[in-house]
Every structure is written in structure tokens, then in C-alpha cells.
Amino acid sequence: MDKLNIGLIGYGYIGQIHTMVYKNLPILLPELNDKYDMSLVISKKLKNTEGLGWHRLYSTVDEVEEEIKLDIVDICTPNFLHYEQGKKFIDRGTNIYCEKPMALNYEESLDMANSAEDKGLITQLALVYRFMPAIAKAKAIVESGLLGEIISFRGELLHSSYLNPERKMNWRLIKEQSGGGAIVDLGVHVVDSLMFILGENKIKAVNARTNTVIKERPDGNSKNLSKVDVDDWGLITLELENESIGTIEVSKVNYNPNSNFHIDIYGQNGHLSISDKDPYNPIFNSFIDKNEKDIFREINENKYVKYLNSIYPTAKMSMGRMADVHAASVSNMLYNIIKGEVAYKETPTFKESLKSQKIIDLSYESSNENGKQIIL
Question: What is residue 320's three-state secondary structure?
Fold first, then answer.
């Protein structure tokens, strides 16, 4: 088949990560060599994109001629642009890979997902923790019944990126442009990871509280302060159908050098722990009489686990945790386009990703009503 033509929209931090991935995938996965072209990039800061391997450089989406055929558009722009840009290229019949969130809310996300499905397009949201081998192995352990019935769980994703009150206002701190704060930006990863791992253990109720710790920030280069109208800390409580309860804490103002992404799940047979400090393996402490080596030998035969073990960068080839999970996620999208189908049901397609977006929206609804429990 002809090479896939990839177009990247946005060259901020995450666009740089994606560019690094596209440039390095042929080294990490030689079977992808000569399978795609970095056809074009769209960025307001064109000079920053020169000499990086992108063939055509554009300043705006509207400059891209209708006759230019793209097989994948990769959207890395601010959240409020995802819906407009996604719909534009869906209408052109282009497969979409999009950074999270898909759009500003569930309604826009549903419209995008339905539009793409009607066109028969392959889509994927960058819910990249699904492509961490430790997450896949944890899911396989839960599915196998080794953990037993779920008793409780907790997840956290704690950053300190906005702890400095002198950090200036930007689109992430404006609800109209971001859709929310820590719960949108960080919470969606933990919500999706837990829902993914827990599988058939369905959520029946949600309640949440949020806080804006730093309520005003410098506005651009002026000395004026602007109000921050999104959360920089959030706590979500989820209740499963079996009445077990778990929590998710996310923050952009928590400094803890020993903790970033962490999940604990307690079952009747033991305890599962997942951390980005070891993206390859979860810790499984079991009360059942079964050798740990035998357990992981069995888990490593899981179809999705074997797949991730083949596409996730090895420790010797690691580009760093952030780039590694994105590399596995992007390569999954490429393989799906090459095959012409979504090969693994674990893929966070737009339709699949609606589940976590719904929980995010309900979390804000609950927080706006002082933590009222909302039944799904």
C-alpha cells in the first residue's frame, strides 16, 4: 500500500512529543519504516517546525488545500479547537487521532464520535495510559479473577506545574477554552485507566469536589490579575455496582517528588499497585496459593499484553515515560490504519472514550452541587 500521509495540527509541548514519536518510530519499530510520511504540520509558530521532517508547513487549518489527501490528522491544539478542527477533517473523510479531551464536553464529543462512525473512519483519543504494559497486565489480572471481587480502589495523578502563583494565565485556566481544570486535564487519564482495568465492574454512582487553590494569576505581561475559573485540585468518588467505593485525586498544585501517577486496587484475593515508576509491570500481592512467576507467565500470554510488549519501547530504547506511552499509542493508530480496522478492542476509539468523558462531565455536575452523588 502507499505510505500513510500524516498531518499534525499544533506544535506546542504535546505536538513536540508527537513529532518526536513520528521521527523515532521507524527506529523503535522497524516494520513501520517507509509506512508513513510526515506530510504537513500546522502551527502558528512555523519557524519552530522547520527542519523537523514535516514536508509542508502551514500557519492555519484553512490554508490546507482540499486536494491534499491525508490519511490521519493528529490534533494537538488547545481543547476548544478540537471539535471544530476534528469535524472539519471528519467531513473530509480523514481518520482522526486526537489529544484528550475529544472536545469541551460530552455532547460535543458524542457528535464527533457519531460523525466519524457515520463516515466509517478510524479514530483514537490519546488516552495513553491504556498503552502502558503495567496497566494492561493489571487489567488481565482483574479479568482472570486472580484479584477476586473488588473491595476498594484509589488513583492519583499529582502535578505541581501550577503551584507557582506567578505562572501566567493561559487557555488551560479559562473554562470556556479548556472545558475544566485538573479533572479534565489529569482526571480523565485516571478515570479511563481505572474503568479500563476494572472492566465489567461497572460504575453506578459519582460524586466529586473541586478547589481552585490559586484563584488569580498574572494576565500576560501586565501587572493585572485575572480570575482563574477552573479547578487546580479535584477529588472524585466512584461507587461500583457491587457497592465497592474508590477515589481519584488529581492536582496541579501538589508537590510530591515521590508520587505522580499511582493506582491501588484491593480485591478479596490480594492487592494490585500500578505506578509510572515501573511502566512495565504492576505489583501484585496475592493471598491465594499461586506462585508469582506462574501468575505473570500466564498474564504475559494475554493477547493485548503480548501486543503491548511488542510495541512499547524497551527500557534500553526508552525516550522517557511521556514519550514512551505516546509512542505505543501512536503506533497502535498507525497499525489500525494500515490494517483498515481497529485490531484491538482495547483501543480508545472516540466511541470508547465517551465513557470517561461522561464521568468527567458528571464529576463537574456533582462538584457544582457541593458534591451531590449522581447515579448513572
Answer: coil
Task: Supply the DSSP symbol for 236.
Answer: E
Asked if 290 and 216 sit in the same domain, the reply is yes
For residue 317, being part of any structural domain is answered with: no
- One-letter amino acid at 81 equals L
**11, 196, 216, 252, 263 from 225: Cα distances, Å:** 28, 41, 6, 19, 37
Residues 182, 234 within the same domain = yes
Q: What share of the chain is helix, strand, coil (3-state, %, to 5)?
A: 40, 25, 40
145 domain residue, yes or no: yes
Q: What are phi and psi of 268, to 5 degrees?
A: -65, -20
Residue 232 one-letter amino acid: D
Closest CA to 180 of 106, 254, 126, 239: 106
Last residue of a domain, one of 113, 128, 143: 128
Select from 242, 244, 214 the least CA-distant residue to 228: 214
3-class DSSP state of 62: helix
Residue 1, pLDDT > 70, answer: no
Same structural domain, 83 and 135: no
**Would you give the end-to-end CA distance of the chain in angstroms?**
45
Identity of the residue numbered 364: Y
Residue 92 and residue 208 share a domain: no
pTM here?
A: 0.96
Helix (H, G, I), strand (E, B) or coil at 226: strand
What value does the mean pLDDT take over residues 79-89?
97
86 in any annotated domain: yes
Each residue of 216-274: pLDDT tens digit?
A: 999 987 779 999 999 999 999 999 999 999 999 999 999 988 778 999 999 999 999 99
Indicate the number of domains in the chain: 2
**Degrees (nearest 5) of the Cα angle 165, 170, 174?**
100
In a 3-state reduction of DSSP, which class is residue 111? helix
Neighbours of 297 (CB within 10 A): 10
Which structural domain, as residue segments, surrounds residue 70? 4-128
Eight-class DSSP state of 301: T
